[in-house]
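Backbones bend. Shown next:

***
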Amino acid sequence: MKASLKQISAICLASFFLSACQLSTDASKEVKPSKTRSLKDTLKAAQNGNYTVPNATEIQKAEALFRRTFQGEQSQALQTAWQTQGFTMRTLTVANTPFTVIQEHDNKRTGRGFYVFRQTDTLPIMLQAPHSFNDEYTGQIVRRLLLEGHYKAAGWNTVSRRQADMAHLENTVFQAFGRAFAKQYSTGTIVQLHGFAQGKRKTATGKIADMILSATTRRPSQRLLDTGNCLKSQLTGFVVRIYPNEISELGGTSNSNAKDLREWGFYSFLHIELSKALRQELRNDKAVRQKLSACLQ
């Protein structure tokens, strides 16, 4: 009986040490970080879908959630609130800089847009690419400007303008994004990039212009004039024209985002039309992008 008890004790002791060793081995294993998509791949994956018109309640809730995101909130409560609206909120780190990404769920892509917020070291300037599918390279330019500069946030359309034109439709989540920014940063600036074909322009000035800069009104603001003069000095080799003082077309006067913001008392909206040649330079040459940012920031 004593021998039997000794054998049982020995077996139990051995079993204990074996379990302890196994636990120690498991604890020492490193958990491999999951592969994170780049911002480029994340944006690409969020595109397409079928546009569904959001109702007034959805737009109102989205604006409130955008406002909280602009204020830097990173709570689980906010993430859950975005989820109930059909969006995912997460942090994406690029070159040691954290960004907050707001995008629709993969199984609920209804063309409400893709939004990125820089979490640190920011200036109150927002970038927008409402026609990133059709105005070639504008989406890529906005993405690279955001990553390289100090812009607070950026927004992209996620369906073709043939389905939903984010620069002319009323009552969109894209519009709510701009309103939330304007309410949070009343002295900030929203910059919206577009593309045009010189050959389709109606005036001689338009046919040679590379950039048409506008505040979407017939009366250019001092901010617009100062930015235009800066761009003329920086982008040598390209023709920069200010609407309506120097050119009579592509002033963006029917832009729904700018109109909506003016109703809320926000006037610092820059509408920038780019020729294909300048878009190609901005897409490919970081130095040219830095010159643009030097005038916008």
